[in-house]
Amino acid sequence: MIVIMVQFCYVKISMIAEKLLEKIFINGQQNHAILLICPDTNSLELEKDKIIKRLKILPQSLIEIGAGDDKNLDTGIDEIKNLLKTISRSSTTTSRLVVIKNANKLTSGAANCLLKTLEDPPLRTYFLLLATNKNIIQTILSRCQTYYFPNIVSEPYKFSSLEINKIKNMSLKEKFDFGDQLIKKGELDKFLVDLKIYYKNEFINNISDKNIIQSLLISEKHLKANVQPRIIAENLLLLLS
User: Does residue 41 share a domain with residue 82?
Assistant: First the structure.
C-alpha cells in the first residue's frame, strides 16, 4: 500500500471543495481516510455536508459515530469494534461514508483498533474523521490525508445547515409560522445572513441555482429598505423547498 504523507493544508473555503473533493475523491487519487481539523464544529458540519452531496452518499450508506461535544466524553474501543463489525458484515454497491466526529476524542485503544481498517478498508468505503484540534495520535495521522483549515464561518452563525435542512421539510404553514417567530424575535436579519452562508457553500459545489443567490440579494436590499418583514420572511422561506 502507498502511504500518503500527512499534509496540513491551510486552505480557503473556495479551495477546499476543489482540493478535497476533486483531487482526493473524484479523480481516483484518494486516500480512503480523510481527516479534517477545524476549531469550529459548524464549519466541519458544512464540509461534511458538501462531501456527502458530492459523493452522492445515500442515507443508508452513511454511518456516523463519535463522542459528543461534552469534554468528558470519549469514543472508546467498544464503539469502534461495533462499527467495524457493521461495515464488515454488509457490502455496498455504492460509495459508503463512515464519519467519525470528534476524532481527537478517540481513546488510544479505539484508535489502535481502527488502524488496520483505515489502511485497508472494505470496497467503496471511505472514512471521514472530523476533529476540532490536532491532539490525534500519530498512527492515525499517518493513515489519513489531513487538512487543517480555519473557521469557514466568519459571519454571525445562528441557523446551522442542519436546522435549515429541517426547515426545508416543514409544511408551508409551519414555514410561515416560523417566519412569524423570526419577526417577533427580531432574527430575520440573522436568518438571511445564515441563508446566504448556506447557499454560498451549496453554490461552490454547483448545487445551488444562481437564481436563489439573486433572490437572497434582493431580500437583503428589501430588508435595508424597510419593506414589510412578513413579505421578506415568506419569500425567503419559499426558497426552502
Answer: yes
Higher pLDDT, 79 or 21: 79
Specify the 3-state DSSP secondary structure of 156: coil
Assigned C-alpha cell, 81: 469494534
* Alpha helices in the chain, H assignment, sequence order: 13-16, 41-55, 77-89, 108-119, 138-141, 161-168, 172-185, 188-204, 210-224, 229-239
Residue 9 or 235, more confident: 235
CB atoms within 10 A of CB 15: 13
Least Cα distance to 179 among 234, 240, 239, 241 occurs for 234
pLDDT tens per residue across span 110-147:
999 999 999 888 888 889 999 988 888 888 988 888 88
Does residue 1 fall inside a structural domain? Answer: no
CA dist., res. 172 & res. 233, Å (int): 12
Domain of 98 in residue numbering reads as 13-148
Beta carbons within 8 Å of 111's beta carbon, 6+ residues apart: 136, 137, 139, 140
